[in-house]
Amino acid sequence: MERVYDAIVVGSGFGGGVTACRLAERGWRVCVLERGRRFGPGDFPDRPEQAPFAFWHHVLNPGGMFDLRLMKDLSVLTAAGVGGGSLVYANVQLRAPADVFDDPHWPEAIDRTGLDHYYDRTEEALEPRPTPADPALRKVQAFDAMASRAGREAERLPLAVHFGEPRRHPFSDVHQRGCDNLGRCDIGCPIAAKNTVDITYIARAESHGAEVYPLHEVRRIEPPERTGGVWRVGFADLQYRIDGEVEAPVLVLAAGTLGSSRLLLKNRRRLGRLSPELGTRFSGNGDALALAINPGAPGVTGARTEHGPSMTSRIDYTADYGFMVADGGLPGNFRGLLEIVRGYTALTGWGRVVLRAKSMATKLGLTDRHVTHRGLKLRRSSDISDTLIFLMIGRDAANGRMRLTPLFRCFDIRWSKDDSAELFDAMRQAAGELTLAAEAESFFAPDAGPLGKFITVHPLGGCPMSDDPAHGVVNGSGKVHGYEGLYVLDGSIVPTALGVNPSKTIAALAERGVEHLLAARTAPE
After folding, report:
1. How is residue 36 annotated by DSSP?
2. How confident is the model at residue 354 (pLDDT cuts 50, 70, 90)?
3. What count of other Cβ atoms lies within 10 Å of the Cβ of residue 226?
4. Of the candidates 282, 384, 292, which has an alpha carbon nearest to the alpha carbon of residue 330?
5. Is the full-model pTM beyond 0.90?
């Protein structure tokens, strides 16, 4: 690693991958610092007993893939690794509805018409397309049949997946195989059929000279001492257990909604000009999960939800209620994880006691607790192979607040499900109608599971965009108000819920932001 670069990018997911790629293409010397490891096709878990070891911890398990954090009011599940959330997301590439951008919290320059150009640009790398009709998938047929019986229509989702023969990816020249319907999208694809950020944007960035350093967790940010100076970034090398520092005139935070917000809050004393709105506009993007257990309706039974991409279809309730319902799936030998959603007793071992103690500690202000692999085991599950999984995403109130707790200075999120009660009530009703159509047993509880807390996998906000610092942390291009050379380009800058899977919008905002960054700054020599 060099001491000085033209730009430092913290994080390698949709925001960081896009940013590193576009800067490197223009000849910038780019350093990417990623807290997680680099994963190859054979590095993902393929047996349920491996699942507890997939939880990331900066000391106990820096090679983990999932980062589950316990806050006082909710829990948040994100990913760690080169490629960020793309490693374990369901590949869905939906554009946000046009009226999302009518919300006054968005900068005036951001609207759907203007963003479409950048949505288009992400497709050069991510290549979204619907699940092919051949071979026919029972999960698609069952979802269609259930929707029809409920008086609704299902539609295929655009997925960032390669369906076809083995090839070299046209954007990055990385070798990948075609989708083999393994149902493992959410736990890591072992054949590289997913067009993840690591094999698209990051690979292309590296081909243009960008340097990517996995297992490097950024801890400290120091602003330039003078105008035009360099940003100093302190990091911990999680592999060799040493600290280091790197410098650049441009620093782009793309550590994710929690990562970037946490970094700025923890370093706020050095960054006194940050907007007072830092930490605001947190949203869980209306995440909720429902189950239709043991369906009996004709055409709905035997869905085989483990066969095919994790998500293939959705029923769109946006016009009526502001949410969507997508199908879900897990590999057959991992379906016991659904028992965890339904109750705490699915977990065994002394780790269950530790997990409960950590959850209780959040009530006292010891928040931002990791869930680790130590002592956690899964009970042998009952046969729920015919269960339909509904993954629901909507427009919540987006009024949560990230902060440091007064007593222990721990990162925390204050959030109330009651502020979005109308949304969740509508979701409960829709889940009930679909389950009735499927002639199944209904399960819907946003705050169920082993912790009895709401959990989101699509966190947004914390460094919201705005046209002025009185209402947000960054401008419409992701530049931090009050600081030259400091940018945030990830889900934390999204100021409202989107009501659809957010990855495509995060990538498009990063494409737009880095374009403005390049236009505003002199190219390096």
Report:
1. S
2. low
3. 6
4. 384
5. yes
